[in-house]
TrEMBL record:
This is DUF177 domain-containing protein. It holds the Pfam family YceD. It comes from the Bacteria. InterPro entries: YceD.
């Protein structure tokens, strides 16, 4: 996602707006997630004399799988951000670099998304997951397994019981 900052560079202090939606290009470090739709960015940017500062929100819809019940679901993210782009970036300050009159936003967008991804996706906060005995989705109702761990004879996981013994 490219944004021309030519006018901002010529008019220090003047605020400009950006609204765009597209899939970012990731050539360095893939996030290993699938996006369900283009990533939307709404932001304002201004040149402060040293750097072009972008402030706004990133919206992304990710195709995810619940870490408890294994159902596929759509995980939506709305991420506020404020990042600086400079011709001589200060990496200690977290600035991104750019040349010419255009800023490439892809790395910044993917960095912000990766910082806000959950360690484990959950389809809902109170997901009960799968029964460890019979494998039934406990969100759909009780499975009938006894809490002390007695295994039913028709348990599909019974064949795996001694696998690591």
């Amino acid at each position: 996602m490219k944004q021309s900052v030519e006018q901002a560079l010529e008019n220090m202090g003047r605020v400009y707006t950006l609204e765009a939606a597209e899939m970012p290009v990731d050539w360095e470090d893939p996030l290993d997630v699938s996006f369900a739709s283009p990533i939307a960015v709404k932001a304002e940017y201004v040149f402060d004399g040293k750097a072009v500062i972008f402030r706004g929100t990133i919206h992304a819809d990710i195709e995810a799988q619940c870490g408890s019940c294994l159902k596929e679901f759509l995980y939506s993210m709305d991420i506020p951000f404020a990042d600086a782009f400079s011709r001589e970036p200060d990496e200690e300050e977290g600035e991104y670099g750019f040349d010419g009159e255009e800023v490439l936003l892809d790395k910044m967008i993917l960095d912000e998304i990766s910082l806000h991804l959950p360690v484990r996706f959950l389809c809902r906060e109170d997901c009960k997951g799968l029964c460890p005995i019979c494998g039934k989705d406990r969100n759909a109702g009780p499975c009938g397994c006894k809490p002390n761990g007695e295994v039913k004879k028709d348990n599909p996981f019974e064949k795996l019981k001694g696998l690591f013994d």
